[in-house]
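The record is passed on directly below:
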Amino acid sequence: MVTVVQRWLCMLGLLLITSASMATELVASVSDNSWALFQKMVANTSKHSFRGVFLFSNGAALSAMKVVHRWQDGVVRERLLQLDGEMGEILRDGSKIICILPNANAINVYESGFSSPFAQLSGMPETLAENYHLSTAGEDRVAGIVAQKLYLRAVDAYRHSYQLWINKADGFLLKYLLLDDSGAEIERFQYTQLELGVVISDEELNPTVVGTTKVHENTALERATATIDRVMTVPEWLVGWVPPGFALMQGGLPDKKYDSQVFSDGLASFSVFVVPVLTGEGMPEGGTMMGATTAYSRKVVHANHQYDVTIVGEIPPLSAMKIAASVTLKN
């Protein structure tokens, strides 16, 4: 259980590295002021230096974290510190992210392009406008700052809706809620303390927990694929149905021994994995949901080999089930 909590802490930190790798450009096809403010948020949120405290709830999980974020010479440096439960820390220096766990081991978990909420928006405004209705919803205050509320409502039940609280002065995202198709809250991010436009020193960005850095963590999936490489080659798979507006953003590389594909509608995204089951029973069939994220798996058999088809992403269970059911062999 401790290991699970530690890994969840690390993943939580990765999800919440605030606005790293934000898209720098969004040419909206709608001239409405709400879209202009939304565009401002996407383009500028990472280009601030700030320190603060935020809350994040995702299903039954609730966490408070302190953040120190610096934008300097086009490079983001950031430090996140868990304020409740076991202490953990996440550091970002450009494209390099380190998760320091409570057992004093630091794991280098990511060293390439990192995407945070709304980062995939760039270049897809038309699709976004087709699948979400954006409207203003008055003003409010978050962490003592006047915010414009926006409501980004999904046009169908295949994706979630969003409520956003954005600083009118500079487009800084102060709070967001993810809502299911009934309007119920399933995820929340919210600053409770925030200092914008501050000078952040190098000392503030240094870790407070010292650990032994590991260059790479060998995940279960990588261990499985290392075995697959010696045993078999995975056939190519086709995703026959995706919700309207979703498009293929990334497919599996030819040298991979499992099939993976990433789809996005410009805001939400999901991944499709097809992995051979070599030992044991593989993934359990069925689904689970943590906040806005759904994971759903089913098994398929081809040429006497069993495969796990798994869908993971910020989509409702209905979407994940239909996508998984549509996955078949190419040709």
Summary: The chain has six helices and 20 strands.
